[in-house]
Design brief:
By secondary structure, this protein is an alpha+beta fold. It has one domain. The protein contains three helices and two strands, in the order αββαα. Strands 1-2 form a two-stranded antiparallel ribbon. The longest helix has 25 residues. The chain starts with a helix and ends in a 5-residue tail after the last helix. The relative contact order is 0.10. InterPro entries: YefM-like_sf.
Length: about 70
């Protein structure tokens, strides 16, 4: 589900003046929103990593190095 689709399902709580004061989402929509935000966060982290001059290593190599240090992965 896209962000726009989720926003279509939002319910607003309004005060006596008609001002929006809170948002109500179904729990399933909340979980979907959290998943979308995590995906965005992951994409931003990946972009920062790609822009970094740090060397990236394959996961298998990282596992081997951690195991060599006695860390169970």
């Amino acid at each position: 589900m896209s962000v726009n689709e989720l926003l279509q399902r939002v319910h607003f709580v309004v005060d006596n003046g008609g001002n929006r004061t809170a948002v109500v989402l179904d729990y399933e929509d909340w979980e979907e929103l959290m998943t979308l935000l995590e995906d965005i966060e992951d994409a931003e982290e990946l972009s920062r990593s790609a822009d970094s001059e740090e060397e990236l290593i394959p996961w298998e190599q990282a596992q081997a190095e951690l195991r060599a240090k006695g860390i169970d992965v």
